[in-house]
Amino acid sequence: MHVTKALGLSLLFALAACSGERPIDDTSLTSGADWAVYHGNANGTHYSTLDQINTDNVKNLKVAWRFDTGDGFGEGGSGSDMEGNPLIIRGQLYAVSPKGRVFCLDAAKGKQLWVFDPAFGDVVNTKQRLRGVSYWSNAREERILFTFRSKLMAVDARTGVLIEGFGHNGEVDLKAGLGRDPSTISVSNVTPGVVYKDLIIMGSTGNTPGHIRAYDVRTGALKWIFHTIPHPGEAGYETWPKDAWKTAMGANAWSGLTLDPENGIVYVPLGSAGMGNKDFYGGDRAGDNLFGTSLVALDAATGKRRWHFQLVKHDVWDRDPPTPPTLITVGGKPALAQVTKAGVVFILDRLTGQSLYPLQELRPPASDIPGEITSSTQVLPLKPEPFARQTLTADLLTQRTPEAHAAVAKTFATVRSRGAFDPPSIGGTILLPGMDGGAEYGGAAYDPQTGLLYVNANEMAWILKVKKQPPLIAGRSGEALYQNACATCHGVERKGSPPEFPSLVGVAQRLTDAQIERQITVGGGRMPAFAQFDAADRAALIGYLKGDPRQTAQKEAPAYPSTDGDPYVFDGYTRFLDPDGYPAIAPPWGTLSAINVNTGEYAWKIPLGGYPELADQTTGSENYGGAVVTAGGVVFIAATIYDNRFRAFDKRTGKLLWQTTLPAAGIATPATYSVGKKQYVVISAGGGKNAKVKPGGEIIAYSLP
Fold first, then answer.
1. Which end of the chain has fewer CB atoms < 10 Å from its terminal CB, N or C?
2. Which cofactors does the annotated protein need, by name (predicted)?
């Protein structure tokens, strides 16, 4: 690869209701006393003006209260996944549990005020990955809006009672209105929507087109839609095959949205233009595939496109933005910072989408997979420099032990490693940073006092492979169904990649047929619901998982989904590890960086996390969840998945000021708020990313004595 040039620029389930009505004053909804919006404020800065807890006294923090949702479940780290950033509004905290229940707590005491169960008493066997809720109010009422499976729901913020006038009996079906048969698709939303006036604007995830939709926050009526896979006559239509808009999936805003209320703009980071196998093979979607892997600015009132910036053309690396952009100021200009899985940050003019730092145009190698046509050019920022290493070379292989080095060197010699945008291959391509970043869903924190952007990152190499599509068995056999719908994540041999993609070997000994069938039907965690599978299909698939590979449904029909045009498929998620399970790359394996957005230079960078069993405690580790920065001079972050630590750093120097060990990893972004005259810092501690430990379901708040 070479650089060619620099480019310029319901009541039953609402228990123990909150007491009484209270006056509403929207002017108090700031990231000071309250934390009223996901990530602190509409701009997504993770910044608080509170300063009672500061660099001098943060070492004195103690547990103020603990609340156990009772919803932590699953051995081996795969059950819970508690990624939520709670909201705190006028002394009441709103949070979601690993099973999707919504809790309202007294924010000063941790006492439960009400809980709403969106499953209405039904058993929830698998984690529901939910990162928070949205809040809306006017002069008379307050609402909490959230998603559960394929439903957008609304409850009274004071009582937890389902608002039956919203949508149909309190629910809006997110599968409706996407131009596909709702009975055959799966839709959910991991990250809360943003509220603009009387609209709630939503992204989504699932095997559907990822169109952005705005709903009336009172009635649930659809008010506008933006097609992320363009229809005929719309901008970007020419970047896809002619009829792709009828069948293509992806280009979804699974990671959330950011709002600029002053300018009436919603910023939409869109995922790659494929789902499952199609994330990594694009032979049936020739072209740049707008608006896949792009940042799009929309008029929040109408959904009209203001501008777009495509981060990756024809993405076959799943390099979609993992978090909403952070709204910042650069040299007095309104700007934004978009951190990426690729370990870079794009700093753009907020109003025009123009880069505020020079870009380099790359000419990456072409794909050698038959039928795949990757883009001949891609762009990356020249400044700031990447916050994660970009190319794995032999001198960067682990030296942890001679045996570890020898083992990874042997594997390294069999794969390809040519840096950014090296296409997937049959033999294996090194992806660095890996599929979990670089940056992750926690996103960046921005301090307007210093102009520093704080980014935590993973520095893990993964191996990206594709393979020829195996020949399918005639009819809708269990094996054929598994190959098409499940093998991408769980692997052909059903071993998975725990904890994200659990092994299905011996699943019949862990779960009943009914439990397996329900998982197929409703999904959970990163697994979508397979609504297209009828009872016969489900029976066939269950039979295969129980050891009868030729178990066939009662009808004969083509295997679903069709693989016509997809001769190559993804060969599973593979971290590049040594024989002992540690990263194949030399440390650091996780970092925390402070970047001055006005200069593009680094103020400091440190390892983040570690492995308790290793003598070297400066290796860093994989981390998920973001940071919070305060006027008190402190950066708070948990995120690390092996040592379960919650830490505080000096925001100007990166010096460690305080740390404590959580009962389970805090793979979430904390929040800070005040009640009365006391400041609190709160974190969700649910674990879920480390397959070696049991996760939990607690919310823990800290304060000064």
1. C
2. pyrroloquinoline quinone
